[in-house]
Design goal:
Layout: H1 2-17, H2 22-25, E1 40-44, H3 47-57, E2 61-65, H4 80-88, E3 91-94, H5 100-109, E4 114-116, H6 118-121, E5 126-127, E6 151-152, H7 160-177, H8 182-206, E7 214-219, H9 223-229, E8 232-238, H10 247-259, E9 264-267, H11 274-283, E10 286-289, H12 305-319
Parallel strand pairs: 1-2, 1-3, 3-4, 7-8, 7-9, 9-10
Antiparallel strand pairs: 5-6
The structure holds zinc ion.
Residues 74, 155, 219, 221, 241, 292, 294 line the site of zinc ion.
Biased composition (Basic and acidic residues): 136-155
Region (Disordered): 126-155
Keywords: Signal, Transport
């Protein structure tokens, strides 16, 4: 679909450019350093990558996000306009395997100007989780095969240490694109790293002593967060927030909540709370928002990644009975 429209555009342009100056009509993008003072054009796939890129680039780049505010990023669809922006950008920052539409458009339009962040994010978790890090053998979400067997968990940004590493990766790549601004990127990355270290420290201290270590959630976005701070994530459905749980999954979740004296079921901002509410109603637990920060909306508990993360910390401290 994209390739045929792209071919049409290319043909049309080559006609226009036939007698024009070559440099003004060249189709290369992201291969030449920007002029001094000229902003880089960077496209990001979803909010946490946008936030990290803006922090690193500062005012040296125009950063545009493909996932619009309030949209759910997992099943993003792109417009022809988005495709054009991707093609013309200096760099596309994305996470392979998270948004199929973005994977496709990067392969077709940004093969030579993209940054795939998973090597920096170090995606070590798969879903269903490996047996070695799971002592709750009968927890719902562990063994009924939602999603691909062994699919990588993409939600690295809920672990500040992983997001920090991604910031370093973005800084390195931007420095290649605009070597004259490398010092700026290096300084911004250092500041980003310090802020995330502070955030990490707040989580570590705030969640050190909690009565309940089982985090029961309708969307399994908190695997890396749970791993980092010593929780055990129990998903009611699976990696994708729009997956409907089966009656058997719901029964398992309800039993787990009762058996483990779980008081709080978490759901997220961008999808319906129906599943969490069902389990909560049947068990007497409370359903509350824990934000996977896949996008910000008017309903978000803050206007930036660290603000929403700190709101999540407060929610977890209450929900997990931390002292
Ligand atoms: Zn997700």
């Amino acid at each position: 679909m994209f390739s045929s429209s792209r071919r049409f555009v290319a043909v049309a342009l080559s006609g226009v450019c036939a007698g024009a100056i070559l440099s003004a009509c060249g189709s290369d993008s992201g291969t030449t350093a920007p002029e001094p003072g000229e902003k880089l054009t960077v496209i990001t796939a979803f909010y946490p990558l946008q936030y990290a890129t803006q922090r690193i680039a500062g005012d040296t780049a125009t950063v545009t996000n493909l996932t619009k505010p309030g949209a759910e990023p997992h099943d993003l669809e792109l417009t022809p306009r988005d495709v054009g922006h991707v093609e013309q950008s200096d760099l596309v920052v994305y996470l392979k395997g998270f948004q199929p539409a973005v994977d496709d458009v990067v392969a077709q339009e940004a093969d030579d100007h993209n940054l795939e962040v998973s090597p920096f994010a170090n995606l070590t978790l798969t879903v269903p989780p490996g047996a070695e890090d799971d002592e709750h053998e009968h927890a719902p979400g562990d063994d009924h095969g939602h999603g691909e067997e062994g699919a990588r968990d993409p939600h690295f940004w809920l672990d500040p240490q992983r997001l920090s590493k991604v910031g370093d990766g973005i800084a390195a790549r931007l420095s290649e694109l605009a070597p004259d601004r490398a010092a700026t990127f290096r300084d911004n990355a250092a500041k980003f790293r310090r802020d995330l270290a502070d955030l990490d420290n707040d989580f570590r201290t705030g969640l050190a002593t909690c009565r309940n270590r089982d985090v029961v959630t309708s969307h399994e976005a908190f695997g890396y967060l749970s791993r980092r701070y010593g929780f055990h994530q129990v998903g009611i459905t699976g990696l994708s927030p729009e997956q409907e749980p089966s009656p058997a999954q719901l029964r398992e979740a309800t039993t787990f909540v009762r058996d483990h004296d779980v008081r709080t079921i978490y759901y997220e901002t961008l999808v319906s709370p129906a599943v969490a509410n069902t389990v909560a109603r049947e068990t007497g637990a409370t359903a509350t928002v824990l934000d996977p920060i896949e996008g910000l909306t008017d309903q978000s508990a803050g206007t930036s990644y660290p603000a929403v993360m700190r709101a999540n910390l407060a929610t977890l401290r209450k929900g997990q009975a931390c002292t």
